[in-house]
Amino acid sequence: MVRRTAQRLHAALAGRVLTTTDLRWPSLATVDLTGQPVLEVVSAGKHLLTRIGSGWTLHSHLRMEGSWHVHRTGEPWRGGRPDHGIRAVLANDTWTAVGHRLGMLDLVRTTDEAGLVGHLGPDLLGPGWDATDAARRIAAEPHRPVGEALLDQRNLAGVGTFFMTEALFLRGITPWTPVAEAGDIDALVDLLHRLLTSNADRAVQSTTGDTREGRSQYVHARSGRPCRRCGTTVRVAPIGRAPTDRVAFYCPACQRGPAPTDAGGAQRPLGSSRGPRTGYRPLR
Q1: Which end of the chain is more exposed for a tag (fewer CB within 10 A), N or C?
Q2: What is the pLDDT of residues 135-144, one digit of tens each?
Q3: How far apart (Å, rounded) are the C-alpha atoms in residues 274 and 256?
Q4: Which domain holds residue 15?
Q5: pTM of this structure
Q6: Phi-psi category of 188—alpha, beta or left, where left has phi over 0 and alpha has psi -120 to 50?
Q7: Helix (H) or strand (E) holding 29
């Protein structure tokens, strides 16, 4: 979770002076922040803001594959990931933070942060969380698929496919259900807030209350496996429009509402290297 990443980076970098900065991003290749103190690292939705004492903010976004790793300065990089994926290195005399396969990296004046995150809706884990405003934003597009509306960070910040998928399973509606037919939006927003809050400090995200491997979620990433509630095979299909389309998981028996045309072929769990290939047709 992005909030946990911000907490880990803050603990390693805040209050210490940078002894090394290596930003492997075309527009930032000549930037050197060495000698500058890090004031804090905070999250805003899915964005990470590293505020530097000289009045600059290093902004990063993980997208789908990015990550930050922290190790003791002087120790070799053992991230288990190839060096060519490193996009940023920030180090002080004690800790080194390595940004791997980051989706975005920008350096802006701290006073200009709004240009990067000002479009975000209420942050589910932020101090200014406003459930009423979030529900209003979602309801403003009644014909939009509810899953797509929840992933739109302009409506509410912090929801990814994991919590979108799991919350809609718990509410008993498919991600492609129009907002106008999705039932009580206030209750849905409240459920999301409770799920994210309960997972804020967990290393393993869980919506089932069980953090053991393979038991932490109901349907997310469980395509081709039985639904935990009824035993029906969990399906997966795309949601949204390219290039920002994602995938959503659902149980055809437990969740009411529309779903993309599905040939009914065998599906393997997302990310699995064995078993039959995922069989679904794109959303029309």
Answers
A1: C
A2: 999 999 999 9
A3: 30
A4: 2-117
A5: 0.76
A6: alpha
A7: none
